[in-house]
Amino acid sequence: MKMYGVNEVFAVLKDNKITTNIESVRRWLREGALEGEASNSRKEGWKISEEALQRFLELRLPTNKMNEEKESINATNIVLIKEQARKEMWFEVTEKNVWEGHN
Predict the structure, then answer these.
(1) Residues 103, 96: Cα–Cα separation, whole Å
(2) pLDDT band at 82 (very low <50, low <70, confident <90, very high)
(3) Whole-angstrom distance, CA of residue 97 vs CA of residue 103
(4) Which of 7, 19, 63, 88 could form a Cys-Cys staple with 24, CB 3.0–4.6 A?
(5) What residues pair up with 47 in beta bridges, in sequence order?
(6) How many CB atoms lie within 10 A of CB 24?
């Protein structure tokens, strides 16, 4: 089982855009949101297992993926709305030009 230090975990979380501050990692460890083993020595610091890091990533990443999907859906809806507006305007202009002057 691979064990990571706080700096290594921070690098992984930063790459995944979960945090930009190493103190967040330490706080999550103290609060128990991120599982880790505290050593008796401050020099050694926290040790986090690969499984604990993966569980933490799974809890944090799905929200980001869902937000990206929502943004993609919203962009698609905007394109469809614009296309519908163009169609309606085209029909109005065409109808006006065809019938203008014919009473």
Answers:
(1) 12
(2) confident
(3) 13
(4) 19
(5) 37
(6) 16
Q: How far apart (Å, rounded) are the C-alpha atoms in residues 97 and 90?
A: 11
Please state, in angstroms and rounded to a whole number, the distance separating the CA atoms of residues 27 and 57.
Answer: 16
Is the pTM value of this prediction over 0.70? no
Q: Which two tokens stand for residue 72?
A: 């993609």
How far apart are the two ends of the chain, measured CA to CA in Å? Answer: 86
Contacts of 39 (CB under 8 A, 6+ apart): 45, 46, 47
What are the helix (H) ranges across the chain?
Answer: 6-15, 22-31, 50-99
